[in-house]
Specification:
Radius of gyration: 12 Å
Largest sheet: none
Number of strands: 0
Shape: globular
Mean pLDDT: 97
Structural class: mainly alpha
Length: 78
């Protein structure tokens, strides 16, 4: 667990569960979640918080890898 906190700033399994329950994932898909996380990381970097930005980018990468593995839907078809 300590490794997850260092890498992601949270329990990554709980984070993924919250993503799946979120409105962004349900309406747009995980690609938009990744884009949002990347925007959050940019904002953190702009304010000098590089450690949180690094963890947020790791969260984005984890979600992206789950999309690539077919575990999450990238884009919701309408």
């Amino acid at each position: 667990m300590d490794k997850q906190i260092t890498m992601y700033g949270c329990d990554i399994n709980e984070f993924v569960a919250s993503v799946k329950d979120g409105i962004t994932y349900k309406l747009s898909g995980a690609n938009m979640v990744v884009a949002g996380l990347m925007s959050d990381a940019q904002e953190m970097m702009a304010h000098g918080d590089t450690e949180s930005a690094r963890q947020t980018l790791n969260q984005a990468k984890h979600i992206l890898f789950m999309i690539m593995d077919g575990e999450l839907v990238g884009t919701v078809q309408r």
